[in-house]
Design goal:
The complex is a heterodimer of chains A (533) and B (313). With 533 residues, chain A is an alpha+beta fold. In chain A, 29% of the residues lie in helices and 19% in strands. Classes of the chains: A alpha+beta (533), B mainly alpha (313).
Chain lengths: 533, 313
């Protein structure tokens, strides 16, 4: 019996057991002004530009504000910016900051802070890099205004500044923002609704945020990263709990208020507790994936990649990840987030429900596959990648491929996948991961969809049709043009098999019913949440 | 005695040097790359390469080792790659919870295990003996995490007597400090109690069979005097040894216990650092643990001399 099974069994028994309970002083709740939150992962560093992990971005959204923010309809809205103008030729953008904005050290937010922050952000962000490539000038006009002059129009400017993909364009004081983007900042001074209590930070255990009294929220209602970020708490405490069973017990006991990502095994138990509310965390969900290395045999052969794509049964992958809960997954014959404006299934007929093993075997035979080993590196310490890796190993064997299954940890996968060496010399053939649905709305920040060879994400796909479709989307002037480009992109990416989408899946979040105002979104939004005593 | 202690302390220096070289070499050849973890899953290969360069991970082994050794000699354990905090600060943050857990576990274990072992030996073959040995087998056989969950379920979730998780510093008061440690200490102590009780029983049985005990009994000496003055003192050398060696078990067990009960101790710091390949932290903590082992062994050797004057080096 493993830990998870044991806890499940014990916790299940606990839920059914009836009997008196005696509140103990040890379990006394904190004041209603403190929110105790269990995040998805450890906040191991706190520079949202240097390290782009989701957990860092989520914490950063409390501390640093952005010039614009996407709302729940995925539209960019003004946030720190009061107004903007763009010249008729689309080349000169002028932004004016809202008056009265202050950093946590009491200094006013000035245009030159925004400029320095944009310089640092744009060195690390895919959209930022695109803007840098066409940048003629980025400078402060006065304390409240700055100007960004381009050599060609960039219609997605506001989306670039508003998007929630990491790295977001957080605004820091100029002296901090001047840090090399590849070096970590050591001062955490923002102008967001909460301060980071650095002296209380115990990496791996706890991170504390305290209310910033001088924060000036916008007057509109909050909506995701946009609108008035009203915080009802004096303190937000992030408690890092590596053990899901302990997090579940702490939530049931009232020692914590909100758990960002309860594991699927424990959700039925939490749903039975009338003091706990369970709901989908993020309607944009996640896209499961495995990536093939196009530099070396056998996946340098497009027909082999297509054979694997055809053979794959997404239901196998999704059940391995979310279990029997059908509300948590759906098939995904493409690369973009279902239910969002640019989603399409162009070319998706190749991804058949149940897979088509017979056709895939035939195609594999035609491809000239000579039994080269497929080195499949799988991070066993990540439940989602492990589950997918197990399914893939079985799939490849059924397909008649020679599988070299390398079970290891994420730290090793992360290093090994960066190697371009042949698999027998320490390289790899395939690895598994998943992409946040929020990153798969469009080509913005969607690193895995790029197919620009050496500059592409690990696996280094090289497909001019894919790249042409991406360029077409960035240059699209109308929604219709955007949609047409996205259809071309989905088809081209499936034809080439940039990666194999294993399905779309959702996860839950859970919180005590004493909390209200918890919303669904791509990150936990603390504004609008309150707690009864 | 002082000269002996001095020689033993000096002997620790080469041991620590070998440990340092070993740890550094192991990390150098181990797979994994902190830069890839820092960069995040969506980073490009170029991002990873740039981060590697800024961290100095692309420099030769000897250069890195030399710099690190020089730092250590100056009393600087370096800076965490991930948190940008000094390793000494991270250890300072984490040492109190781990020390607290170890002290409470040790006190609890010795207080329970030694009397149980002595009683089992004194009443060898009786129901008490069988009961103690059954408990010892249970303590050995059931993994710490199973006991941890059982305790959390009964005493935290069902009875609500104690908290599920967390740590309160001693500065916040004795009871708040202790109440967070009771469940983890019992869980962690289960193995330790079993180990000490078995050794205490076996050693006491051996001592009780000695002629001088028979002589003492024949002289009409009372049970207490025989047990606690003559037998236990002479049986204490192996018991002290196992208590000392058991600290190794405590450190290993603390990793699991700290994770289950969400105690921000050195065990969790080590595991997190290993998973992230935070080399300076791993090196710092391993050096600290090694130093502790050496100190514990030194302490045991010194206690031997105090307990048994016949032991001379």
């Amino acid at each position: 019996m493993d830990r998870r099974s044991l806890l499940k069994a014990m916790a299940g028994a606990g839920a059914l057991a009836a009997g008196p309970s005696f509140p103990a002083p040890a379990l006394a709740q904190g004041a209603a002004k403190t929110l105790r939150f269990v995040p998805q992962a450890n906040l191991a560093n706190f520079d949202p530009i240097w390290g782009t992990q989701y957990v860092v971005r989520n914490a950063a959204a409390l501390v640093w504000d952005t010039l614009y923010g996407v709302d729940a309809q995925l539209r960019p809205q003004r946030q720190m910016v009061e107004s903007e103008t763009v010249s008729s030729d689309g080349l000169t953008w002028t932004f004016t900051l809202r008056p009265g904005l202050k950093f946590h050290d009491g200094e006013p937010v000035r245009a030159r802070d925004a400029v320095a922050s944009l310089v640092r952000w744009s060195a690390r962000d895919p959209m930022g890099l695109m803007i840098r490539a066409i940048q003629a000038e980025l400078s402060a006009v006065d304390d409240r205004s700055f100007r960004w002059v381009l050599t060609k129009p960039y219609p997605k400017m506001l989306l670039a500044l508003a998007k929630n993909n990491a790295p977001c364009s957080f605004v820091m004081p100029e002296r901090i923002a001047q840090t090399d983007p590849f070096k970590q900042i050591t001062e955490y001074v923002g102008s967001g609704p909460m301060r980071f209590a650095r002296d209380e930070w115990v990496p791996g255990a706890r991170a504390v945020f305290t209310r910033f009294a001088d924060y000036v929220p916008r007057q509109e209602p909050a909506s995701w990263l946009a609108g008035g970020k009203q915080i009802a708490f004096d303190r937000v405490e992030w408690i890092i709990m590596p053990d899901p069973a302990s997090a579940s017990a702490a939530l049931q006991n009232g020692e914590v208020d909100w758990w960002e990502n309860p594991i699927a095994d424990l959700v039925p138990l939490l749903k039975k507790n009338r003091n706990i509310q369970v709901d989908i965390a993020d309607p944009l969900g996640n896209v499961g994936s495995f990536r093939m290395n196009t530099l070396h045999p056998p996946f340098n052969n497009q027909l082999v990649r297509r054979a694997v794509l055809m053979a794959m049964n997404q239901e196998d992958y999704m059940r391995a990840i979310v279990g029997d809960d059908d509300a948590l997954w759906k098939p995904l014959p493409g690369y973009f987030t279902p239910g969002t404006p640019l989603y399409n299934e162009e070319g998706g007929e190749v991804v058949k429900p149940g897979g088509d093993l017979a056709a895939a075997r035939k195609l594999l035979a035609e491809s000239g596959y000579k039994g080269e080993p497929v080195t499949c590196v799988v991070a066993q310490d990540q439940p989602i990648t492990k589950a997918q890796g197990d399914v893939t190993a079985d799939l490849l064997k059924k397909l008649g491929m020679n599988v070299d299954f390398v079970a290891t940890d994420w730290g090793t996968v992360g290093a090994r996948r960066a190697s371009k060496a042949p698999p027998k010399d320490g390289g790899w053939s395939m690895f598994h991961t998943w992409h946040a649905g929020a990153d798969c709305l469009s080509p913005v920040g969607y690193t895995a969809i790029r197919a620009n060879g050496d500059k592409a994400w690990f696996g280094w796909p090289d497909s001019p049709p894919v790249e042409a479709a991406i360029t077409g989307w960035f240059e699209a002037a109308t929604p219709e043009d955007e949609k047409a480009a996205m259809r071309r992109l989905n088809k081209a990416a499936l034809d080439y098999v940039v990666y194999v989408p294993t399905g779309f899946f959702l996860t839950y979040q859970a919180w005590r019913t004493s909390l209200s105002g918890v919303t669904k979104g791509p990150l936990p939004f603390f504004w609008g949440v309150s707690k009864s005593a | 005695m002082l000269a002996y202690a001095g020689r033993r302390v000096l002997a620790t220096i080469p041991v620590m040097a070998v440990v340092a070289l070993f740890v550094f070499s192991l990390l150098y050849i181990a797979p994994g790359d902190p830069a890839a973890i820092i960069a995040g899953d969506q980073a490009t290969p170029d991002d990873v390469a740039r981060i590697r360069a800024t961290l100095g991970l692309d420099r030769p082994f000897l250069v890195r080792f030399g710099e690190w050794a020089w730092q250590i000699l100056q009393g600087d354990l370096g800076t965490s790659i991930f948190t940008a905090l000094p390793v000494t600060a991270l250890i300072r943050q984490r040492i109190e919870p781990t020390l607290s857990l170890m002290v409470v576990t040790l006190v609890l274990s010795i207080a329970v295990a030694v009397p149980l072992g002595v009683a089992a030996a004194w009443k060898a073959g009786s129901l008490i003996d069988r009961l103690v040995m059954t408990l010892a087998v249970f303590g050995f056989s059931v993994p710490v995490f199973v006991i941890s969950y059982l305790l959390a379920y009964v005493f935290a979730l069902e009875l609500e007597w104690l908290p599920v998780q967390g740590y309160t510093p001693l500065s916040a008061g004795f009871w708040p400090w202790l109440q967070n440690l009771i469940l983890p200490a019992v869980a962690l102590g289960s193995v330790y109690i079993a180990l000490i009780a078995r050794i205490a029983r076996a050693t006491m049985l051996e001592v009780l069979a000695q002629d001088y005990i028979k002589t003492a009994t024949a002289k009409g000496l009372g049970r207490r005097a025989i047990l606690f003055v003559h037998a236990l003192k002479n049986a204490s050398v192996p018991i002290v040894t196992v208590i000392g060696l058991g600290i190794a078990l405590l450190i290993g067990g603390a990793v699991v216990t700290e994770s289950v009960f969400v105690i921000p101790g050195l065990g969790r710091l080590t595991v997190d650092a290993i998973l992230r390949r935070d080399y300076p932290v791993i090196q710092g903590v391993v050096l600290l643990f090694s130093f502790c082992y050496v100190l514990v062994n030194l302490g045991i050797d010194l206690v031997y001399v105090l307990l048994d004057p016949r032991i001379r080096y």
